[in-house]
Hints:
- The chain is α/β, with parallel strands linked by helices.
- It has one domain (3-145, 164-192, 241-246): Rossmann fold (3-Layer(aba) Sandwich), CATH 3.40.50.150.
- It contains 10 helices and 8 strands.
- The protein has helices at 3-20, 25-35, 52-58, 71-84, 121-131, 148-161, 171-180, 197-200, 206-217, 221-227, and strands at 42-46, 63-68, 89-93, 106-112, 132-143, 185-196, 228-231, 234-246.
- β4, α5 (121-131) and β5 (132-143) form a beta-alpha-beta unit.
- The longest helix is centred in the first third of the chain and has 18 residues, at 3-20.
- The radius of gyration is 18 Å and the shape is globular.
- The mean pLDDT is 94.
Amino acid sequence: MTHQDDVRAAFTRQIETLTSSPLDAESLGRLLRLVEPEAHWRGLDVGTGPGGVALALADRIAEVHGVDVTPASIAAAREQVAQEGRTNVTFEIADIERLPFEDASFDLVTCRRVGHHLEHLGAALTEMRRVLKRGGRLVLDDRLAPHETTGRLIDRLEHTRDPSHVHCLTMEEWEASLTAAGFVVDVVDRYESRVTWKRFTAAATPEKAEALRELCNTLSDKERASMLEDRAGETWVKQWAAVLSAR
Length: 247
């Protein structure tokens, strides 16, 4: 079983939840603010899932294409387009490392919560660079490790919860990866959030949810305090993220 098989399985299992729950308004708003769209633009949303970001962009620019490796996600996105009668947004199954577009095809590429699932992040970023026009903009939103120590703990938790997770990058790793792919980062917007344990484990199978609970029971007090917070009778999971704009 390949890593892409893990990704397809994970997101096919989650598709009902993903399509019934709107995108987090705060993180979507942060991404859209950095886009600074112009009406004539042609945009690409990679790892589009059921199409939330692409559909939001379609309200702001002339043409949007969304790609994803998971057929169930593309089917859900196409269904949403049909229901809304959209004519300026299309979706297709595609590998982010081999995008089916000519060089310099887009004014904008967006990528939300995809990077930590990528086995070959550098190859994917290089493809995004290739399909962007000269002076075009990449805007990505992804999970962030505040430092390496917490990053290793995040990866342990995420690997246990979701086998499609690869690595939660630090800001230094993100900037180095983008630079290696030919980008210059011009804006960074970091933010933090908390999610309930129930929401954090919602996408996990019962077996993985139990393994996650067992892992958390083995954490030291310091490790637990760095990732978990108990309040109002619930356990909350700390999460860090960043929106980056690059050209």
